[in-house]
Specification:
This protein is of the alpha+beta class and 300 residues long. It is built from ten helices and twelve strands. The strands form three sheets. The chain has a six-stranded antiparallel sheet. Helix 1 crosses helix 2.
Length: 300
């Protein structure tokens, strides 16, 4: 019988307390209270995200470190040729279209800038690449994605410059909603690019998940390689709650996911349809995709 039960009649509690003594009785109630507290903590732990698998899902994601960016090609075939050259050396490279319409090639995920520079210098020495740019990890940024650019140093002046009072400006924080929009706009820049890069072999092409991975790489997030692995991480999103940058998955079932794309708003998503085809925009209500839609995930 639980002596801590407040529903017991007072006379019964009094009779039970007599043989134990007043001190022993209250000590007993204290022990029972501690047991109830421990039980409550266990219940909370069992219902926590870590116990239900949410924490494990996040384990598949990590931020991209320093990367090496090469080239400024006006024609996509030149970027493809360099990517193929790097792939033959076992380097997982991909090419992409910048905001200014120029193609560049990017690869690597280094913890330190020095490591990225050392690898790049070795590739220059081997005549694999010529010039290069070390792309820093994604920092706080506004909703508009800013491309790295080179600035010319001001011409030297004989006149002593006037003292300038520096005004400290607060950089805008990178919100998760901003990064989803950035991922969507980045994906849209791939539309029309031939589907022949970033996979195990370049000319043979990559699958749709490789395209998605390349876009997220540019946004500073490293996601798993295959569409099935990508579905195992991130947060589940209902179809009517999709936002820019979410991944949409297709297949015969959750165990048989065969395709993935990046949602870009208004029921549309960008994807790489098949090898040899161009990256394109499709809609979720098209019969083929409507029947095969299995779910969506969010990573920002």
């Amino acid at each position: 019988m639980d002596l801590s039960d407040s529903t017991l009649p007072g006379c019964l509690l009094e009779n039970l307390a007599k043989p134990m003594g007043r001190v022993g009785f209250y000590r007993y109630k204290e022990i029972e209270m501690l047991k109830n507290i421990r039980l409550s903590i266990v219940c909370l732990l069992l219902l926590s995200p870590a116990a239900t698998g949410c924490a494990a899902q996040r384990a598949g994601l990590k931020d991209i470190g320093f990367a090496i960016q090469v080239g400024a090609f006006s024609e996509v075939k030149n970027a493809e040729r360099l990517t193929k050259k790097l792939q033959k050396k076992g380097i997982q490279a991909f090419y992409f279209k910048r905001e200014n319409g120029i193609y560049a090639v990017r690869f690597g995920d280094f913890a330190r800038k020095e490591d990225a520079s050392r690898t790049a210098r070795k590739l220059v020495k081997d005549s694999t690449i010529s010039s290069y740019f070390i792309a820093a990890p994604q920092q706080d940024m506004s909703a508009s994605h800013r491309e790295p650019s080179l600035e010319k140093a001001p011409a030297p002046s004989l006149r002593k410059p006037a003292a300038v009072v520096k005004k400290r400006e607060q950089e805008p924080r990178r919100e998760k909603s901003d990064m989803g929009a950035i991922a969507a706009r980045t994906a849209e820049r791939f539309v029309g690019i031939p589907y022949r890069w970033g996979g195990d072999t370049v000319v043979e092409g990559m699958d749709c998940s490789g395209f998605v991975r390349a876009v997220y790489n540019l946004c500073g997030v490293n996601i798993p390689r295959t569409s099935r692995e990508q579905y195992r991480v991130g947060d589940v999103v209902a179809k009517d709650e999709l936002k820019d940058g979410d991944l949409v998955f297709f297949g015969s079932s959750l165990d048989e996911i065969t395709h993935v794309g990046i949602f870009v708003g208004s029921g549309r998503f960008v994807h790489a349809p098949r090898r040899g085809d161009d990256i394109k925009v499709s809609t979720l209500d098209e019969t083929y995709f409507l029947k095969r839609f299995v779910g969506a995930k969010r990573y920002f």
